[in-house]
Design goal:
It contains 16 helices and 18 strands. It is of the alpha/beta class. The strands form 2 sheets. A 15-stranded mixed β-sheet has the order 9-10-5-11-4-1-3-2-16-17-18-15-12-14-13, sandwiched between helices. Strands 6-7-8 form a 3-stranded antiparallel β-sheet. It is globular, with a radius of gyration of 22 Å.
């Protein structure tokens, strides 16, 4: 006799999780796009840059001055991203940054006469500053006179990467089947670790019991597929006092049903804030999934140098496997930033300069990889570990800045969430960009910077925890083919 799904202690076949579910209720992206047309703009505050990997032709900001936000509001797009990079910050700094963005956005919105709704984009494996970020957004909206949110809608699904929610339980696809996310390596994160795979229990855990699991509204696949948009809208409209709802999703159609329901609930006066994974953004913006960019589409985006730069900061096991496959394919020159030297004040600067100069010199003959040493150095506690991560990321960023100053690469690939954010903002000084599409289906976003020293250099955002073992090598092959 098999164990019930909630009692499983390892991966189980995906078919066992999906068995007996209601038939998918098909909703087109065009239907969502028509429903939200003329409505408030979806503004995604992204806690690292990887949330753009499901969308195409969407503005991205790494700066949030009123002028920058007005520029984004004027673009012909139902959604835009503001890269806050708060996953790399302390709770206090993350809260302050969210407040800054919302205040500037509120001023920009008033100046442009355009309404907005806020999504706090977090990790599909549940890492990040929750509930802090949604709490702060709710407080700011209330103080600004925009109205206290009636509810917080949590939708972590990331369909392409196999992060699925069924029966309010969150799963991640592995080679051996679906694994409850609370049993994954991501749940053991030094800063954002957790135990629960059940989303209501996860909410209780992350709020320290402030919100009990029993208080959480569960929007299930029975609601989305059986009840449909009108039924789901009635459920969401019942939210009051900032109550949390968690939503199932296995495919884009589930999320598009949710998008229609949200539009109806909000049109009828329900005020909501979202905490979401990447797939929700595409559905809520009325975009269909698009095929990866082709060599012909990439060709006009490439920089002038013969070869590109790959920067690797992520330490998860998947990234290490992807690096191994990239080495097997060949055509790279590899340079290591030794974390021990980066934490040594006397030797740090010289070490960075030496690695950057070598990588810049290699770009005429090979794609250059700059990576941190693969032994993860952690601190005495979560805050100390985060401080070390920031220091290492700052070194990677400085190396990128020095490479680009000496020899502009054909492209830059950044592997890892904090790494890709800091590289964009500080290493390449990107303020405004367009997310043009992906290099692999639903993952690995390509940005086209529109200002600063990186204008004309495609920038590729590659999360640490997505793709198979060959994904990094396949993405590089595509870039080379252009």
């Amino acid at each position: 006799m098999s164990l019930p799904l909630h009692a499983q202690t390892g991966p189980i076949p995906e078919a066992a999780v999906l068995e007996g579910l209601p038939a998918v209720r098909e909703v087109s992206s065009a239907e969502v796009a028509a429903r939200i047309s003329g409505g408030p703009r979806l503004v995604v505050l992204d806690d690292d840059p990887t949330g753009t990997q499901t969308v195409a032709d969407v503005p991205v900001l790494t700066s949030w001055t009123v002028d920058d936000l007005r520029w984004a509001l004027r673009q012909d797009s139902a959604v835009f991203f503001v890269l806050t990079n708060t996953r790399s910050l302390s709770p206090e700094d993350a809260a302050a940054r969210n407040r800054e963005v919302v205040r500037a956005l509120h001023a920009a919105s008033a100046a442009e006469g355009t309404g907005y709704v806020l999504a706090s984009r977090g990790d599909s494996t549940l890492r990040g500053h929750f509930p802090l970020e949604t709490d702060v957004l709710a407080e700011e909206l209330t103080e600004l006179g925009a109205g206290a949110p009636d509810g917080v809608v949590v939708v972590p699904a990331y369909v392409e990467a196999g992060r699925l929610t069924v029966g309010s339980r969150h799963w991640m696809r592995t080679a051996d089947g679906l694994l409850p996310v609370g049993m994954s390596e991501f749940a053991r994160d030094a800063t954002f670790g957790y135990r629960s795979s059940s989303l209501p229990e996860w909410v209780e855990e992350k709020t320290g019991g402030r919100i009990s699991a029993d208080e959480v509204l569960r929007v299930t696949l029975d609601d989305l597929r059986g009840g449909g948009p009108a039924h789901t809208a009635r459920l969401l409209s019942s939210l009051r006092g900032g109550r949390t709802a968690v939503v199932d999703a296995v495919c884009d159609d589930d999320l598009r049903v949710l998008a229609l329901a949200l539009a109806e609930a909000e049109e009828n006066g329900t005020r909501l804030v979202y905490r979401v994974g990447p797939s929700f953004v595409r559905a809520r913006a009325g975009q269909a999934a698009r095929a990866p960019l082709t060599p012909a589409e990439l060709r006009p985006l490439r920089g002038d140098a013969p070869h590109g730069l790959i920067v690797v900061g992520s330490h998860v096991a998947l990234t290490t496997r992807q690096l191994d496959r990239l080495r097997e394919r060949g055509g790279i020159a590899e340079y290591e930033l030794d974390v021990a030297l980066l934490l040594d004040e006397e030797r740090r600067d010289a070490h960075i300069a030496e690695v950057a100069a070598a990588a810049a010199g290699a770009l005429d003959s090979a794609d250059a990889v700059i990576r941190t040493s693969r032994v993860l150095v952690t601190g005495a506690d979560a805050d100390d570990s985060l401080a070390i991560s920031r220091r290492v990321s700052a070194a990677l960023v400085e190396a990128v800045r020095q490479v680009n100053a000496g020899r502009r690469p054909a492209f830059v690939v950044a592997k890892g969430g904090i790494t890709s954010s800091d590289t964009a903002t500080h290493g390449l000084e990107i303020r405004r960009a367009w997310a043009r599409g992906t290099l692999l289906p639903g993952i690995v976003s390509l940005w086209e910077p529109v200002d600063g020293p990186a204008a004309g250099i495609p920038y590729i955002v590659f999360a640490g925890n997505v793709g198979g073992a060959d994904a990094l090598a396949d993405a590089l092959d595509l870039l080379r083919s252009a």
